[in-house]
């Protein structure tokens, strides 16, 4: 063997040796074992359901004999896809809903962005008065369940011509509203805009708050007008954040279920999400799953395509930004009060008016008759009365509602806690894993649920957990399944929150414990967990609120024994039991607002200060 | 001296960057060894490798006769089992724990009964002159007090080896000077072998019993502080140590024991230098002797700038392209552009080979300590 060959051989064996030593050291560390376990669980809860969903669209399933006589259960077929895209009902089942989804989703996203952007600028960067109380008010439409706004809209505009009792509009004016204003794309776009603009508002507020006002002041000193500064300085700087907000908002609007269902169904206006729901209800499983895949594809395309276009800097997403605004606000001068009045009216109309409308309706004995003699508290406090509401007792005596309240709180609490804890562990591995392959995989997979519109995600779980698979029992209809899907659905947020919390904890704090001989488990328990708590509690409450008002994620998975408030409310709304439905929505709203208030207090209170100290 | 820490052929790479390059080092019992070098020289990586917070790619480390790391044998002892204590740059005090819980943490990990933990924490607090601060949280303490808590936490477990990663860099200038004395005293009282990382040369000079100057993952010189200053082993050490910088002048040695300086039109004695070689002549500012009158073997320079600094004055002088710094005691009545006559203290100048950058004269002054070797086989002198 020549000298250089020997050298090479020596080097190679040294390399192999080094790799082996490293691997051995790593493979036995608890951190590695936890990572692998989490990876396995996530693969099963995120990737397998997707694979299962895809598989189902390429094979014959139970009950498909109705569709084709040649169907043999379990065999591969391209029938579902051909039928969905080229069949006689392809237009009604796929293309029209697709077009409707794109139209309502795009318009709502654009309007939400414009409204949210303008409000964000006014609230964070000008000297408009009243921003303190206006800011939380403007978040309310996003905190309340989405279909509260749909119900308020119906209350305002419904007409006996379409069904049910007259709305406020007709009662006041004496004639019914035009149909396009009551149902269909226009109200869907408007209500979606109202529901989602706070989302864009928060994202853009975050970007604006971190913008250094000196950049603007510098332009001002050089003589630029306010409009020029806005156009040439402010906007270009926050444009990437703005674009990211646009993509994320569109990702939300496109997959919305409850709003288009309540305001579109009565006039047979379907979107992908609502068609997916009704397909599954009609037993058209494969078609429903295809619609789910189309929805996922659009979202993934928007998010990944958008992220590429922005140079990979989508910044994922931000939750409520806690950064204080530094620097000089823009002076509005003569415009100060007119802008204040406009903003205040908008805030009241979108945040307070819908809730007042719903509240008023719950105390009407007969729906649609606006007179003092029609007032009653029956729907809140009344005992069961066979003449009223088909014998359903009022809210406080209603076994179904009380049971659902308990299940809802339990579900929200367990899911939020689990999600925060798992999110912290994954966030820890992602942050401290120094870009190892496990860390990267965990990061990617835990983000994936963000791309699954809730109703499509539910369809995936429906398909995976409908029957027993190996050691995993059929979880359909169990509370466990609701917890699982709620946790995984919120995991992208949980991991972000956890990662942010871990990032704030200096590495040396942990190493100091390591030097003293503390094991990984002990370090996690005694150093990471206590220091991350304040950040996690806020994140946990956000999840708590999110799970509580979630409908589309669980509506497919619910059975009578696991009903939650939102699904009960949805059923009342469907059955036109408006007063009870509204009362229930108000109950959820109060609970979510209370949760949101706590989040807000935490962000300002003692815990936040403690957190800042530990950085 | 008995060795506490043995490091053999340690190599650590971060991607393509070589942080430690086949580094070998022996640290004697009770030594106060300071690792000094510019940022990125590998000193912190070396310290963290000793602590076990970093896993090197090659080489071996033993601490007090125990092999704690060996790449060929696949040994990597956990940081907690290496008999070392560490003070971090940020102090790394746990903000959610009271001072006494911070200090007692390591003892609790070692499952020492809580009464004894309590007693030892109290003792350490007393020793560090922090009686009564045990119930406070770190955020309620001043920077200096936080530093003491970090030291107290190190002392509580009584490790035989102290590792310190720039522990004073977060303190303000005055406190830093005070803490230097404290740390020296602590080292004296405990007798613990101490490895101390800093980029601050005055810290290294004032505190070390041995200084190790590092650059690009290699040891440039290992010697007591005075030797590091007086006889820098190569141009890097010469240039890195000393403020203002050492005067390094490119020169050509002649047959008669003198050297002709480039960029200037003069020759000066260069005792001990090999004849007819390209060299650098190094002279510390205080070894540049100024005279207001012409004298033998002195060359005329012009004053370029005068920088008085209290007890001493730094004078920048020029002749042709040659610019030198001189350090004079007291206040001089020099004015700009005036002429001065310059000699070098012949016993103090060092001469370096231009190509290798190694010290060539004065001969024999080079430390012959076998405790370290330059990785590139630098024993060529």
Topology:
The complex is a heterodimer of chains A (615) and B (381).
Chain A: H1 3-27, H2 30-57, H3 79-86, H4 90-125, H5 131-143, H6 146-157, H7 168-173, H8 179-182, H9 185-209, H10 213-221, H11 226-254, H12 258-264, H13 272-281, H14 285-309, H15 336-362, H16 378-381, H17 399-432, H18 437-447, H19 454-465, H20 479-504, H21 507-515, H22 520-548, H23 565-574, H24 578-604, H25 606-613
Helix pairs in contact in A: 2-14, 2-18, 2-19, 3-4, 4-9, 4-11, 4-13, 5-9, 5-15, 6-9, 6-12, 6-15, 9-11, 9-12, 10-11, 11-14, 13-14, 14-19, 15-24, 17-18, 17-20, 17-22, 20-22, 21-22, 22-24, 22-25, 23-24
Chain B: E1 3-14, E2 17-28, E3 32-36, H1 43-51, E4 58-63, E5 66-70, E6 75-76, E7 84-87, H2 99-109, H3 114-127, H4 143-156, E8 161-165, H5 173-190, E9 193-198, H6 201-207, E10 210-215, E11 218-223, H7 225-230, H8 235-240, E12 247-253, E13 258-261, E14 267-269, E15 278-283, E16 288-291, E17 299-309, E18 312-319, E19 322-329, E20 339-344, E21 350-353, E22 359-361
